[in-house]
Amino acid sequence: MKTRTKWWFSFGHSFILLALSLMWLNTPYNYGDENFLIKWSTVAKRLIFQVDVDPPKDNFIFINLAYEKALIPLEDQLGNEVITDREALAKLFSIQKRHPNAVKFTICDVFLKGKSKSDRLLAESISGIHNVVFPNQLDENQSPLHLDVRAPNAIADYSSADEGFLKFELIQTHNSKTIPVYMYEKLEKHNITQRYGLNWDNGRPSLNSIIIDYQIHTEELFEQNEYPIVNLSELMLLPEDIIVKEFLQNRIVVMGDFDHDVHKTAFGIMPGTLILLNIYLSLKSGYHLITFGWLLFMIFGFTFFSRIMIFGKQNSEIQDSKWLPKLLQTTVLLSIISICSYFLFNISIQVLFLAVYASLIIFIQKLVKEKTPIHKIRYWYDLISNN
Known about the structure:
Number of helices: 13
Strand order of the largest sheet: 6-5-4-15-1-14
Order of helices and strands: HHEEEHEHEEEEEHEEEEHEHHEEEHHHHH
Radius of gyration: 26 Å
């Protein structure tokens, strides 16, 4: 086969690899190889190359609700359960309601299930505030639950692997939009829809499952004190004009239980509310968008990969000792492409999945080329099955 033909064939095969990558990227699942590559690529970006810039500290105020608790009776049995004090929330939202242009947006990570005597007070204080969102969950029919306090809400559910929380599904079952999407649409004036198996952000193609760029880490919030954080009860001791001017004015208010509502991520334990904020920041940075530059980069990279994988030097005999080095070679090449893609576009491809596919193509190619007899194919099948 002529060299030009080999390159054209490799170019065509790059679109197959690109389609497989997009299919995998749009799933909410992640595996160990993704976690490893992304974790250390992020460390390199932040510590070695210092290409990441922290969001402005004056843009946020974090309000801890860990010590704002109240008891309400259980609905189906005797006893009480602990919830966030809704009367305390109502006092803060009443202030926001009296100053409608002060706060940019409020994410209040409090699940409004269970009835309390302060529900009406809280509902009245929230009524008329449009730049706020509360979390909701999906029921067994994959529909949003009915909350006991009427308030703007969006889905906060997610899937997590054993290695930690890495990817997030933006729009879930029945077109249920999540809190980060809700925030993104309100604050950035964008609209994310689903058509033809893809998400569309104001007409631009985007992914539905994105790798989270953790722009604000737990230690930056609690240990390094880079961002303002205060307990709600302490905040409410101050005069109203001080609360508005010094804490709320022109800021995104991030409210949640930062002590107990925590989750495992690839970068350690992190409050769930902070995870949701980081997903919004990832959307704001455009890391969900499928850009023309990324497509060109992937086609270019997959073309060279296909040229090496399909038309590189092949072993004259099929031996089990040669299988592992070829798998390692494809894994290394794909890892380089994935790392470069993550550094440049914050999109990481699934390496192991594509490496297995590539190795299978090489194996089939060698079988056809060498006209391997059926007894050798059976030998390989038995060898793989036994292992």
